[in-house]
TrEMBL record:
Family: Belongs to the CutA family.
Highest taxon above the source species: Eukaryota
GO terms of biological process kind: response to metal ion
Name this protein carries in UniProt: CutA divalent cation tolerance homolog
GO MF annotation terms: copper ion binding
Matching InterPro entries: Ion_tolerance_CutA (IPR004323), N-reg_PII-like_a/b (IPR011322), N-reg_PII/ATP_PRibTrfase_C (IPR015867)
Signal peptide feature range: none
Summary of subunit composition and partner proteins: Homotrimer.
Organism in which the protein naturally occurs: Serinus canaria (Island canary)
């Protein structure tokens, strides 16, 4: 948060995941982060997460915001600098 890469990070603990890794079915408990940021910050945020994440290939995906509460979207604009 101190890097101002996101307006908000929601932490969802103890998410159970099933996935294939190196040909084997794996099951693990993970922590899911929902990060609310600007599209222009995704690259920098992704680089930062990869630099600190213990997984070889962490899950980092981006979903566009089609609609939302205008007041919340304005708050996000105000709290994540463009640069």
């Amino acid at each position: 948060m101190d890097r101002r890469l996101a307006a908000c990070v929601s932490i969802l603990p103890k998410s159970s995941s099933l996935y294939f890794w190196k040909g084997e079915l794996e099951e693990s408990t993970e922590i899911l982060l929902l990060v609310k940021t600007r599209t222009s910050k995704i690259g920098e945020l992704s680089n930062y997460v990869r630099s600190i994440h213990p997984f070889e290939i962490p899950e980092i995906i981006s979903l566009p915001i089609d609609q939302g509460n205008p007041a919340y979207l304005q708050w996000m604009e105000e709290n994540v600098p463009r640069r």
